[in-house]
């Protein structure tokens, strides 16, 4: 897919204030600092589209971007961000849950996992929660440039094996690096396919 246009539309705390749900929508989620905003920028071919930061907790709202005048990309706040109050965290979680469960044009959620680490309970729990809510998702293993290929593969394999404990079928998965610019075409192709379904 060729990206002809990518524009920022709006940021919300309330899913009901999000743009009219008349176009297919794809959301990016994962723990704080995993690389959601960076990945959106790589996909859109625009380094300045979504705000990124070395400090976790940068994205705090539901951010909508319109791509090719045809579909929405959504940047969400990270889960598991420790440096906020309990009540702040709860309100983020509620915001994300409402958005994920109620947004009617949401086609697929991309769950980002840091490929540097062995399987983390927080990520597995979140994925199992998506399953309970029956929300379609794919996995994206990020920051593949930070490890050797062998180590990245080992972590991915371990993660998928962990998922096999609770899931009969495994979701599609992608491996990305915004430094090496890898994984972009595969994700865009999948979105392209889902857009035409
Ligand atoms: P929050 O909005 O805080 O939840 O974070 P986020 O998931 O949006 O992460 P963001 O895109 O802001 O990136 C966090 C940090 O990771 C930044 O310093 C990025 O430059 C870095 N980063 C993101 N993707 C990659 C990658 O593929 N490789 C490397 N080496 N660094 C990355
Ligand atoms: Mg972000």
From TrEMBL:
PROSITE patterns: G_ENGB
SUPFAM superfamilies tied to this protein: P-loop containing nucleoside triphosphate hydrolases (SSF52540)
Names of the cofactor(s): Mg(2+)
Listed Gene3D superfamilies: P-loop containing nucleotide triphosphate hydrolases
Chloroplast in keyword set: no
Short name of one Pfam family: MMR_HSR1
Keywords annotated in UniProt: Cell cycle, Cell division, GTP-binding, Magnesium, Metal-binding, Nucleotide-binding, Septation
EngB-type G domain segment(s): 22-197
Functional summary from the UniProt entry: Necessary for normal cell division and for the maintenance of normal septation.
Family: Belongs to the TRAFAC class TrmE-Era-EngA-EngB-Septin-like GTPase superfamily. EngB GTPase family.
UniProt-recorded name of the protein: Probable GTP-binding protein EngB
